[in-house]
């Protein structure tokens, strides 16, 4: 990119323009720069380590694209990178041509002559730039961005589209081309460019095959019904590098029994390579369970297990259905409805310093019920201040019977005590959900120990009083024994070095846990080393499939109902794989997602204060994965094999756990008078 878009005689302006444009070039992701003592710079290819001291980033791009001439081609560049470099070089050629045509159109009489020069108009300076040629109104229009943003408003494009990884590079590329650039038309975006994008993503996915062969992979599958009542089944492949979306199958015309599901999964396994597949994970429906059994019968080395995240969600559901918990949630919903049904009261609360919106639970994700209880408890003092204020007491709202019910709940200390107990009761489960639902690191090696620590944490909360903790630990034990626990979980637990060594003497840093430890220290037992790496590199959940449903819903709107399934599949294939590829550049988490040692802690987990309190299901679900939603604290001297049942008084200070769940055993619930309201 060494040529200017408009003539310029200034050496400095040429250098600055080149530097500005080159640093945004996509080739910089694959090149490093070194500066010598004499001030000269050299560029180094990250793949073949070739060094070039001239030609700039453009020459290195030719090297990566395999263009012969000024520099030899790179023989180690990944296929998807080479494809992108080739496209970028072609775009550069096209942009130079478009810029030249635009310049000639603006200056038909030559670089120095105005079209009005014969009438005495002033000449253009040779050093003038595009912005100097613009009128003051044009410069104001462009600098304000109004021209671009009006496109967003007119087309109803969500404003968070500017957060796309590709938004700024797109603007930089357009501005580098200059005036006269013509964007793609409707047909090109819909057909030609979509095909090109799919080809690029296919090269990216194919580059993962080497990883699949080295550490194995997990086949993830799940089905759903779209807004046209079609049954679609998504197939994804997990490996420690990242998840990749393979395809979506329209299963509307077939019976979703075990035999047909087996055939669909077997096709994906054959495409991936049977020897590369270690594990298969699906939801817990009977037909998927049977299909998994058939896969294991055909491929003896492939283990099937149900989705751990789904099983944990069912545990949340089971606990939420217990009478005293359901009653507590019902009471909490009365408070939330009371606040949000009265605009004046809500306005009063929103004026309080530090106020955030109260979250309300989702309909299908049962963990969000307990997030909502936590959110309500955070507002305890604000709500009590409201109902005891002169503003409320003198208002007509205080005379209303339903308001009086809500006030009695808000002023009931037992209600807030029970909310806090439930939140802490769910804390170990929430922590384990965070681990098994994380795609950034393999979670298979932590399920077995995690379930043990969940029960241990609940026992601690109730001070090891069996009468109090047994109803909850029994629910967890039944789900674990009858549904989730499989041999691969036991094997992963045994092979995980975190649990083979004394915690006080074993380093628990990320670079030496799990499969990484076996790579570094397992060379003396090569066969066991290979087995351990294969098992510990797998995921325990198919949540990646579930998170993809929202992608389908966004792309397959009513306006796109005429799209055939193949084009829908291509759109999702490109969209989802690009999001998976780039999400590691935009990670929000600063905690270690595999922090199993804190699972049994029951301290108060919190939601991220910086997150807007959107009252919808998707936002509530996202809170499970946002930074800060559950604090991860270090536990010194914690052991992975804790058998001490005489743990002393570890109940949370100030909580009355003795009567929780047994309101009639000692003290009647203060809000029992409203049981039938």
UniProtKB/TrEMBL annotation:
PROSITE patterns: ZF_BED (PS50808). Keywords: DNA-binding, Metal-binding, Nucleus, Zinc, Zinc-finger. It comes from Vitis vinifera. Residues 1-21 are annotated as: Disordered. GO terms for cellular component: nucleus. SUPFAM superfamilies: Ribonuclease H-like (SSF53098). It is found in: Nucleus. PANTHER family: DUF659 DOMAIN-CONTAINING PROTEIN, OSJNBA0013A04.12 PROTEIN. Residues 22-81 form the BED-type domain. Its main location: nucleus. Pfam families: Dimer_Tnp_hAT, DUF659, zf-BED. GO terms for molecular function: DNA binding; protein dimerization activity; zinc ion binding. This is BED-type domain-containing protein.
């Amino acid at each position: 990119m060494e040529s200017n878009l408009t003539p310029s005689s200034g050496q400095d302006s040429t250098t600055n323009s080149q530097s500005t444009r080159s640093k945004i070039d996509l080739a910089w992701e694959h090149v490093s720069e070194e500066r010598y003592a004499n001030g000269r710079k050299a560029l180094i290819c990250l793949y073949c380590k070739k060094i070039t001291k001239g030609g700039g980033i453009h020459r290195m791009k030719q090297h990566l694209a395999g263009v012969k001439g000024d520099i030899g081609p790179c023989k180690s560049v990944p296929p998807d990178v080479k494809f992108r470099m080739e496209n970028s070089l072609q775009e550069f050629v096209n942009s130079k041509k478009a810029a030249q045509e635009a310049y000639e159109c603006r200056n038909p009489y030559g670089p120095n002559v105005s079209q009005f020069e014969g009438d005495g108009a002033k000449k253009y300076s040779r050093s003038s730039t595009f912005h100097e040629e613009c009128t003051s109104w044009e410069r104001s229009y462009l600098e304000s961005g109004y021209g671009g943003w009006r496109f967003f408003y007119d087309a109803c494009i969500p404003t968070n589209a500017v957060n796309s990884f590709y938004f700024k590079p797109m603007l930089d590329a357009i501005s580098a081309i200059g005036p006269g650039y013509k964007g793609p038309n409707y047909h090109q975006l819909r057909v030609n460019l979509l095909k090109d994008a799919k080809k690029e993503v296919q090269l990216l996915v194919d580059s993962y095959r080497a990883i699949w062969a080295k550490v194995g992979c997990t086949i993830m599958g799940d089905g759903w019904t779209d807004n046209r009542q079609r049954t679609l089944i998504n197939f994804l492949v997990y490996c420690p590098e990242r998840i990749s979306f393979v395809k979506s199958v329209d299963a509307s015309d077939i019976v979703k029994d075990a035999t047909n599901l087996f055939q669909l999964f077997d096709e994906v396994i054959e495409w991936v390579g049977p020897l590369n597949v270690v594990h298969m994970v699906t939801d817990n429906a009977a037909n998927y369970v049977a299909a998994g059994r058939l896969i294991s019968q055909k491929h003896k080395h492939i283990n099937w297990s149900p989705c751990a995240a789904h099983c944990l969600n069912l545990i949340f559901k089971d606990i939420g259905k217990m009478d005293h918990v359901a009653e507590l949630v019902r009471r909490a919903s009365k408070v939330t409805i009371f606040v949000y049904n009265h605009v004046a009261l809500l306005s009063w609360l929103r004026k309080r310093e530090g106020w955030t919106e109260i979250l309300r639970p989702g309909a299908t994700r049962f963990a969000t019920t307990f997030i909502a209880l936590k959110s309500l408890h955070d507002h305890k003092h604000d709500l009590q201040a409201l109902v005891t204020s002169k503003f409320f007491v003198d208002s007509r709202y205080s005379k209303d019977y339903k308001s009086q019910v809500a006030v009695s709940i808000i002023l009931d200390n037992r209600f807030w005590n029970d909310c806090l107990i439930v939140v802490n009761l769910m804390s170990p489960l929430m922590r384990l959900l965070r681990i098994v639902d994380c795609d950034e690191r393999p979670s298979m090696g932590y399920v077995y120990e995690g379930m043990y620590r969940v029960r241990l944490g609940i026992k601690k909360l109730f001070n090891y009083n069996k009468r109090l903790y047994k109803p909850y630990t029994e629910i967890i034990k039944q789900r674990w024994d009858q549904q989730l626990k499989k041999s691969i979980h036991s094997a992963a637990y045994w092979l995980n070095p975190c649990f083979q060594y004394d915690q006080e003497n074993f380093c628990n840093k990320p670079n030496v846990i799990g499969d990484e430890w076996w790579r570094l220290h397992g060379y003396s037992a090569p066969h066991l080393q290979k087995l351990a790496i294969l098992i510990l590199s797998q995921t325990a959940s198919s949540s990646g499939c579930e998170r993809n449903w929202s992608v389908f819903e966004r792309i397959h709107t009513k306006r796109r109902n005429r799209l055939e399934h193949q084009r829908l599949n291509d759109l999702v294939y490109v969209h989802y794989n690009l999001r998976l590829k780039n999400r590691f550049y935009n990670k929000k988490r600063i905690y270690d997602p595999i922090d199993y040692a804190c699972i049994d802690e029951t301290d108060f987990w919190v939601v991220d204060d910086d997150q807007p309190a959107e009252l919808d299901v998707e936002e509530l679900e996202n809170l499970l994965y946002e930074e800060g939603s559950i604090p991860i604290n270090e536990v010194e001297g914690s052991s992975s094999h804790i058998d001490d049942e005489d743990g002393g008084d570890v109940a949370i200070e100030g909580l009355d756990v003795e009567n929780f769940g047994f309101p009639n055993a000692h003290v009647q619930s203060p809000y029992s008078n409203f049981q039938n309201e």
